């Protein structure tokens, strides 16, 4: 087993680091991006549209790289040592046991929605490790052992050994270097008791051992206000472009919860060099509050910092339940404006998970939102916004607007969707979509039973059709799962150049827990991975846009480092590109750093990891 060849390129040394070809260009001046005044209105008193919807220039087209690639997966969960991962290993709370009796309360509904995963190399040995959140048992930290060459099992659980708290009901998680010391810390949201979130500082730089110390309270990350917590996913990004990573925590806060005039869906600003890794709450001041969008409560599931209008400033996209998803445009002055209606998004009735990627190869990020599809016109859930709905695919049409194509691209029907990702498991150069699903409310109405629904894998049909229509192929490729899937992360756990799949099943004490599928596609198609080493406050280059052009004058693939939280899932800070069957060098790789600097490389050999350092 090998991690593959790696090419490390500090920018200051490009003159002597050949990399088969020269550096085409390097712009050492940081771009400030476009800046827009906040809080202004036009003469009608309405908020203006700061971006409009001028169509993007027509780019070179031509998705896919030639032939339809054989694709298959094998469930290797037990083989690799991901053992005893049941989401709720103890007895279910009263009213929650699917086999029991009684009335379902708010706590039970929350627990049935949980189960997350975060992937990152916390000990910096070059191999991705896995953190799993659970209820009814402690969270789990699995260290990847493949770098030691010992063979199976591939993972060893050592959460307690490395200083992680025993039991606290974790839910969302993200590996993130908040203090700029170049090792990955861990931030975890939670359900209710003990009524706070958790932050673990990695001591690798200080002690040489990747162990953890809990410091959420001291850093302003606990959000401990004496109220019950219903935390979900975490977004990571530098929204004010000060060079330090900020956070956004989401919360699904039910209407029956006490004190609806507050919530824990918060925008947390990193105080930067004066107090590295300490945070202040800027939610209201920055115009990013989810309060009062729906008087029934805040229902945010999956936030992401992502630059969707390509002005250089990370926008905030929040997928939210009950018709409340929001797209907050970044105005470039530390504030946001709600641009949801004019952008043509939030058309799903029950937004759950979120993924960003350029599915049609036009060079612009599109937005996929998982939701609920029922064959009946209305779900019997006692809520007027529940209904048929289905998944939504928002295709970027211009800097400020989207066209919804979910049904047109055969993506609408996905059951009760949760975690989702756009990925390229067959390395053919276009993005496919994978989605978990399922829901079962004990003693609830029939419309709330989504049991034994299969995981969905939609393969992008661009190779055969010349356009991005999708076909559901989960059974055909071996992704056989009909459990209660929630969190989902794609990763290359064995570093063989193709992406594997991790899914958290929250079926409870009798469920199988987390599942890992190994990609068995082989070496038919080439690939290229990119890792970035950024500046002090953003060592992993979170938010950097990477553009790969396979052939001169051809279409461009786009990836953004750290853009997605999916749903309770947070992946590696690494960009993966499928290159198709050709072994010819990659014509161009262009990196737009969060600072606005641009690096361009040419003539790169495939099947390697490019490590690029900022000055």
TrEMBL record:
Keyword Zinc-finger appears in the UniProt entry: no
UniProt keyword annotations, A-Z: Signal
Residues covered by region (Disordered): 26-66
Pfam families tied to this protein: FG-GAP_3, UnbV_ASPIC
PANTHER family: CARTILAGE ACIDIC PROTEIN 1
Signal peptide (from-to): none
Species in which this protein is naturally found: Enhygromyxa salina
Name assigned to this protein: FG-GAP repeat protein
PROSITE patterns xrefs: PROKAR_LIPOPROTEIN (PS51257)
Source species, domain of life: Bacteria
Domain ASPIC/UnbV: 541-610
């Amino acid at each position: 087993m090998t991690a593959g060849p790696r090419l490390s390129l500090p920018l200051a040394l490009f003159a002597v680091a050949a990399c088969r070809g020269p550096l085409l260009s390097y712009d050492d001046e940081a771009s400030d991006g476009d800046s827009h005044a906040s809080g202004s209105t036009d003469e009608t008193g309405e908020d203006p549209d700061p971006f409009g919807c001028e169509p993007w220039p027509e780019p070179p087209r031509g998705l896919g790289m030639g032939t339809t690639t054989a694709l298959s997966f094998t469930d290797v969960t037990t083989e690799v040592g991901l053992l005893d991962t049941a989401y709720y290993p103890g007895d279910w709370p009263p009213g929650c046991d699917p086999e029991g009796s009684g009335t379902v309360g708010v706590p039970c509904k929350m627990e049935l929605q949980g189960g997350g995963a975060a992937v990152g190399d916390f000990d910096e040995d070059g191999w991705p490790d896995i953190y799993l959140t659970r209820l009814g048992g402690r969270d789990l930290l699995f260290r990847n052992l493949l770098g030691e060459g010992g063979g199976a099992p591939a993972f060893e659980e050592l959460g307690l050994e490395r200083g992680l708290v025993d039991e606290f009901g974790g839910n969302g998680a993200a590996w993130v270097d908040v203090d700029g010391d170049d090792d990955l810390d861990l931030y975890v949201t939670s359900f209710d008791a003990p009524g706070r979130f958790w932050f673990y500082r990695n001591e690798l730089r200080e002690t040489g051992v990747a162990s953890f110390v809990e410091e959420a309270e001291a850093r302003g990350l606990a959000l401990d206000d004496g109220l019950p917590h219903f935390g979900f996913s975490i977004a990571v990004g530098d929204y004010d472009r000060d060079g330090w990573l900020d956070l956004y925590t989401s919360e699904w806060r039910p209407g029956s919860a006490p004190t609806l005039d507050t919530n824990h869906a918060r925008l947390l600003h990193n105080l930067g060099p004066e107090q590295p890794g300490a945070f202040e709450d800027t939610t209201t001041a920055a115009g990013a509050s989810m309060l009062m969008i729906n008087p029934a409560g805040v229902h945010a599931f999956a936030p992401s910092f992502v630059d969707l209008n390509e002005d250089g400033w990370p926008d905030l996209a929040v997928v939210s339940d009950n018709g409340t998803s929001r797209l907050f445009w970044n105005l470039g002055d530390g504030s946001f404006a709600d641009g949801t209606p004019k952008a043509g998004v939030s058309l799903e009735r029950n937004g759950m998970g979120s993924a960003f990627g350029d599915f049609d190869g036009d060079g612009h990020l599109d937005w996929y939102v998982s939701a609920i599809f029922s064959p009946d016109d209305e779900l019997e859930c006692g809520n007027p916004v529940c209904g048929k709905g289905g998944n939504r695919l928002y295709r970027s049409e211009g800097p400020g607007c989207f066209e919804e194509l979910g049904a047109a691209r055969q993506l609408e029907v996905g059951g009760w969707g949760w975690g989702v990702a756009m990925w390229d498991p067959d390395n053919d150069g276009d993005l496919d979509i994978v989605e978990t699903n399922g829901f079962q409310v004990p003693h609830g109405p029939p419309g709330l039973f989504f049991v034994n629904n299969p995981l969905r894998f939609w393969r992008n049909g661009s190779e055969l059709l010349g356009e991005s229509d999708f076909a559901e192929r989960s059974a055909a490729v071996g992704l056989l799962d009909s459990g209660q899937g929630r969190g989902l992360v794609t990763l290359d756990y064995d570093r063989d150049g193709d992406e594997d799949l991790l899914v958290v099943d929250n079926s409870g004490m009798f469920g199988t827990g987390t599942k890992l599928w190994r990609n068995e596609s082989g070496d038919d198609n080439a690939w290229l991975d990119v890792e970035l080493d950024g500046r002090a406050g953003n060592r992993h280059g979170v938010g950097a846009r990477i553009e790969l052009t396979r052939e001169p004058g051809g279409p461009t693939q786009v990836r953004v480092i750290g853009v997605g939280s999916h749903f309770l899932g947070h992946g590696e800070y690494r960009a993966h590109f499928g290159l198709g069957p050709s072994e010819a060098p990659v014509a161009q790789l262009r990196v737009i750093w969060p600072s606005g600097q641009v690096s361009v490389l040419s003539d790169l050999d495939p099947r390697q990891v490019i490590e690029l350092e900022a000055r």
